[in-house]
Structures are given as structure tokens and as C-alpha cells.
Amino acid sequence: MACLRGYLRGVTLTIPDPSLVLLIGPSGAGKSTFAARHFEPTEIISSDALRAMLTNDPSDQDASAEAFRVLSMLANGRLKRRLLTVIDATNLRVGSRKQFRQLAARYGIPTVAVAFDLPAEVFAVHNRQRPDRAVDAEVLADQTERMRDAMADLPTEDYNALFVLRDTAAGTTVAVDRVSRPRLASSVVPTKRRPAPSQRTLEQ
Asked: pTM for this one?
């Protein structure tokens, strides 16, 4: 597992293609900017976009349960077809991340995590600058607290690569290198445990 600590200009994130890419961070972290810069629109499944389709309001948290049911169905369909899939959501819950990893593993697809570990005030400022999809301050405060928990849990979770970005320019100063993976003989991952992945750490 590759782990990028800090944020270095000119760094290239190597991402297998196909893979499941989980973007992790509170509202205002820059996940959508990053996704739009580095991936095709058809590759990105956005919880905000699905809430907007359901309610005309991307910040309507009351529609989240329905939005995530649709999100899971779309992710399953793409991964089944061995297509790179980016989940643009907060992905702050341990259980949700585990379900996504299990879904990808069902089809022999690796999972890559990209975490946006920024200061809380950055999330707040960016959130206020999004009048079309800003979340309530209480919701953002809860997301920020859960981000701290996620940062403690992510290194212990089973990802093929974990990248931690700690710069507000995440959407514009990093490059993504997509590396094609050969099709496996079987779409089902063997049940035996893999050897522990190596970890690469780059300090700012």
C-alpha cells in the first residue's frame, strides 16, 4: 500500500485502471474539484449530484439514504464491467468504506483511497463559498470530527493504495497516472489472505 503523507507539488498518484477510487473528506475538502480534473464525468459517482437529482438540492441530507442506494447500484454496475469508478462522497464511515472495498473485491478490482486531510477552517471556508450545495454548520462540524477518526482508521484498512493530501490546491497541483491492469482469469478474488502490502511514505 502506497501512502503519501503531506502534499508535494508535482507528485504523481499512480492509480490502477480499473480500480475503485474512494475520495474521503468533509464537505468543502475539494473532492469534486479533484475528481473533475483527473477523471471523466462518466467515471465519477457523486452523492451531491444524486441528491440534486432526487430533490433539486444537492445539500438535502434527508435524501442521502435514497442517494446512496442509487450510488451503490451504479458502482456495482460499473465495477462488474471492470470500469474505473470514483466515489465522490464524504466516505467518513468505517462501515461504508468497508462495504465499498468488499464490492470492489467481489469483481477483483483494487480499491484506492484519497483522503483530504485539511485544517477544519479550510473546510468551513470552502463550504461557505458553495452557496448551491453548502451544508449546515452542525453537519460540517460532525463531518470534521469524523474525519479525525477516519485518519486514525485509514492506515489500518485494506487498500491497494492510500494517498493523504494536505494542501488546499489538491485539485490542480497533483497528477494522476492511470496504470492498466490485465483482466484476471476469474472475477472472484481468492479467499486466502494477501501478504501485508508495503507502505511508501513521502514527507512534505
From this structure: 0.81
